[in-house]
Amino acid sequence: MRLKNAMEQTMRKSNGINRRGFITGAICTLASLMGGVFATSVSTYLLGNPQAEDTGWADAGDISDLQPGAPQQVSFSRSREDGWRLQNERATAWVVIDDHMDVTAFSPRCTHLGCAYHWQANRKEFVCPCHGSVFGEDGHVVSGPADRPLDRYAVKVDADRLWLGPIERAKNS
Predict the structure, then answer these.
(1) What is the pLDDT of residues 75-114, one digit of tens each?
(2) Which of 29, 35, 40, 60 could cross-link to 162 by cystine, CB 3.0-4.6 Å?
(3) Angle at the Cα of 20 (from 18 to 23), degrees rounded to 5?
(4) 107: left (phi > 0), else alpha (psi -120 to 50), else beta?
(5) 108-111: long-range contacts, CB 8 A cutoff, minimum separation 24
(6) How far is the C-alpha of 167 from the C-alpha of 154, rounded, in Å?
(7) Are 128 and 112 spatial neighbours (Cβ–Cβ below 8 Å)?
(8) Is there a contact between 152 and 107 (Cβ–Cβ < 8 Å)?
(9) How far is C-alpha 39 from the geometric centre of its chain's CA atoms?
(10) Which residues does 105 contact at the CB level (< 8 Å), separation at least 6?
């Protein structure tokens, strides 16, 4: 009888899965799934786009307040979606109105390393003080380490209001 019971137990263990094997497999499977979810989340955070997304057009003010000819820095409020939060932030743009009343709005960041540049009226150029990039009034590179023109905002004029959309990346010249 003892031999028969021992043989039945051995056959049960060799033919099927025992409880200990099932629990061990389930724990390993769950640990692998949790590790995969964690690795996916971390890689998305580290390798994803760190920039918040624009939610649309922002009112940059009354265009009749701006004079044609020289670039003027304009401050405006913009809403940006950052993950699940909607953030309101202050932003700026360099706005140029030419003699034909065509409006161009440049991003306030240099295309070399993202430094803030300024307008030098006596030279009639945008100058980045950090690395020496110089841009013309039309945003094209005059000199310096920057290899592409200034990025521009999408622009539309509705009645007397200036609306600025997302920043459009300039192509290498």
Answers:
(1) 888 877 766 777 788 888 889 888 777 888 998 888 888 8
(2) 60
(3) 110
(4) beta
(5) 108/73, 109/151, 110/146, 110/150, 111/146, 111/147, 111/148, 111/149, 111/150, 111/151, 111/170
(6) 6
(7) yes
(8) yes
(9) 22
(10) 60, 74, 93, 94, 95, 96, 152, 153, 155, 162, 164
- H helical segments located in the chain: 2-15, 19-47
Report the predicted TM-score, pTM, of the whole model to 2 decimal places: 0.63
Instruction: Read off φ and ψ for residue 26, nearest 5 degrees.
Output: -65, -45
Q: What is the pLDDT of residues 106-142, one digit of tens each?
A: 988 888 888 889 898 888 889 988 888 899 888 888 8
Tokens found for residue 61: 């003010």
Q: How many CB atoms lie within 10 A of CB 140?
A: 12
Q: Quote the CA–CA distance of 11 and 159 in Å, as a whole number.
A: 87
Question: What tokens were used for 150?
Answer: 């200034």
